[in-house]
TrEMBL record:
Protein name: SCO0930 family lipoprotein
Origin: domain of life: Bacteria
Keywords, comma-separated and alphabetical: Lipoprotein, Signal
InterPro entries reported for this sequence: Lipoprotein_repeat (IPR005297), SCO0930-like (IPR047910)
Annotated signal peptide: 1-25
Glycosyltransferase recorded as keyword: no
Pfam family, one: Lipoprotein_15
C-alpha cells in the first residue's frame, strides 16, 4: 500500500505589577465505533458552505496518513495526526452511522480526503475505531469513530490547526472520533512538564518562555535584546500575577524598555521572551541558541545555562 499524497511540508490585557515589588530583591508580599463499510458515498449538496479555501488554494484530492499519532494542542487537547504531524479533521455534514462523505469537488480540493490504504494505528490510537468508506470516485477514505477524515490545505506545518471551526462545520478529530473543542483559556503564564527540560514556563498559547543571558536582572532589569533581536525573540508583555499558575511571585515585576517604551514582564527580575522559531505549543527550538538563550524555570532560573 502506497501513499499518493505527501506535498504538505513538515516543517492581556495586563496591569503593571510594580506595586508587588519596588525593587529587585525586596521582599514585599504580593497582594461511536467505525467499521469497514465499503458503501458508496453519494456527493451531497454543500449549499454554498464556506469551505475555507483561500485565493488559489488547491491540492490533490487524495492523501495518505501512514501511522496515525496523538498530538496535544494547548487549547484543543488530544488530536489525531498523520505520520507527518498534520491534523486530521471531520465535517459536520458527513455522517458516521453509516459513514458517508459529503465533501467532493471544490470541497475536496480544500479538504483532501485521507486515504485508508496505508493508515495504521500508532500509539494512543484505538485500532478498532479505524475504518473506511468508499467515496464517489471509488477511493477508500479513512474513518475515525465512523467519521470520514480529511486534511486541510492551509495546514502546512506539524501542529497546525488552521481548519478548526472553519465555517462552523469543520473540527479537528479526537482519538475517539469526536469534535475537538476549545478548552478554557490558559493562564497568561504557567508551567508544563517538558520530557527533556523538566518543568518550564509557558505563555497563554503554550509557547516556551526564554531568558537571554546577556540581560541584567540586578539591581534592576535591563534587556540587551533590541532591534532585529526583538523580531526573533518577542518580549513577553505584562501578565498580571493573578493570571499566572505555578510562577514564583517574589520579584515578579515589569519594567519599561528604553528602546520602545514598552513594558516587559520579568520572572525573578529577569526579562522573559518567546521565540519566533517555535511554531507550535510545546516547541523548544530556542533552547541553547547561541549559548545565550535558555528556557525558564518557575523560579526564573535558566534551564541548562552554564554557570558563570
Amino acid at each position: 500500500m502506497k501513499t499518493s499524497w505527501r506535498t504538505a511540508s513538515l516543517v492581556v490585557s495586563a496591569a503593571a505589577v510594580l506595586t508587588l515589588t519596588t525593587a529587585c530583591g525586596q521582599d514585599t508580599p504580593p497582594p461511536a465505533s467505525s467499521q469497514n463499510v465499503g458503501a458508496s458515498a453519494v456527493p451531497g449538496d454543500l449549499g454554498g458552505i464556506d469551505t475555507g479555501a483561500g485565493a488559489g488554494a488547491s491540492t490533490s484530492p487524495d492523501g495518505g496518513a501512514g501511522e496515525l499519532a496523538v498530538a496535544t494542542n494547548v487549547k484543543l487537547g488530544k488530536l489525531v495526526t498523520d505520520e507527518l504531524g498534520l491534523t486530521l479533521y471531520r465535517f459536520d455534514q458527513d455522517t458516521a452511522e453509516p459513514p458517508k462523505s459529503n465533501c467532493d469537488g471544490d470541497c475536496a480540493e480544500t479538504w483532501p480526503p485521507v486515504l485508508a490504504d496505508d493508515a495504521a494505528a500508532g500509539e494512543g490510537i484505538d485500532e478498532s475505531l479505524l475504518g473506511e468508506v468508499t467515496r464517489a470516485d471509488g477511493a477508500k477514505q479513512l474513518t475515525v469513530g465512523g467519521w470520514p477524515a480529511y486534511h486541510y490545505v492551509k495546514d502546512v506545518n506539524a501542529g497546525d490547526v488552521k481548519g478548526q471551526g472553519v465555517g462552523g462545520k469543520w473540527f479537528a478529530l479526537t482519538p475517539e472520533g469526536k469534535k475537538a473543542q476549545e478548552t478554557a483559556d490558559q493562564p497568561g503564564l504557567s508551567t508544563r512538564k517538558d520530557p527533556e527540560l523538566g518543568e518550564i514556563v509557558v505563555d497563554k498559547d503554550g509557547r516556551t518562555v526564554y531568558r537571554f543571558m546577556k540581560d541584567e536582572a540586578w539591581p534592576k532589569p535591563v534587556s540587551a535584546c533590541t532591534g532585529a533581536c526583538l523580531e526573533k525573540w518577542p518580549a513577553v508583555a505584562p501578565v498580571d500575577i493573578n493570571d499566572t499558575k505555578g510562577i514564583q511571585k517574589k520579584n515578579y515585576m515589569t519594567f519599561t524598555r528604553p528602546d520602545n517604551k514598552a513594558e516587559q514582564q520579568t520572572i525573578s527580575c529577569s526579562p522573559i521572551y518567546t521565540f519566533a522559531g517555535d511554531k507550535a505549543a510545546g516547541d523548544t527550538n530556542g533552547q541553547g541558541v547561541g549559548g545565550t538563550w535558555y528556557a525558564v524555570r518557575p523560579n526564573g532560573e535558566p534551564v541548562g545555562a552554564p554557570e558563570k
